[in-house]
């Protein structure tokens, strides 16, 4: 089997004297789409932030294409596009200015900002302040930002929050295109129908540990035939949002 592109081994993280992530091991091959699912506080955002290099594990290793954050920070950062679960946009900056700023940080021409806006259906509203946008529109700006530089690894925290059904379908299609182009995608979600539609590997987390992982069919076989949503609700005692 080919070497995994993203490798997490023995990753532990404590915050405020509480164990948040314990013994995490994940091997992700290039071009795959991985969904991190779990209830509130399961550790999804923490894992994504550690892979993004925003948080550091207390122990264990994380590498992307053999590169570690500790070893080569700049090279590591260039491999990643990260979509946070929430972001405070600069008041007054338009969507185009916001994306142009991010493009310039990546050394990309302004034309990439316009292309990105078109991709997420915001070309007509590019001259309006992002701060005035709805939640779903802001999510689309954040998605555009994460994929702007065509990074080998795209990390997304709750990317479909606030998206209407049309944009969820469009998002699913666009993420599949990223994967087909060889980009690797890791995202968190409470929307299990999105995980089922999109991910070729699903990790179910509880209390900072992976309880179960596999493709949607394997997980359904393990948890029952009623679908991932029902199994998940029963197992984790939550209903998804
Ligand atoms: N800055 C912090 N300080 C202390 N504890 C934190 C901090 N951030 C997260 N935690 C704790 O880490 C655990 C995992 O949080 P995390 O945000 O990763 O969960 P999550 O699965 O993304 O949850 P949600 O679905 O609610 O977004 C929780 O118990 C949380 O209280």
UniProtKB/TrEMBL annotation:
SMART domains for this protein: AAA
MF annotations from Gene Ontology: ATP binding; ATP hydrolysis activity
Keywords: ATP-binding, Nucleotide-binding, Transport
Chain ranges of the ABC transporter domain: 6-232
Gene3D superfamilies, per the entry: P-loop containing nucleotide triphosphate hydrolases
Matching Pfam families: ABC_tran
PANTHER family noted in UniProt: ABC TRANSPORTER RELATED, ABC TRANSPORTER, ATP-BINDING PROTEIN
Family: Belongs to the ABC transporter superfamily.
Name of this chain's protein: ABC transporter ATP-binding protein
Organism name: Paenibacillus soyae
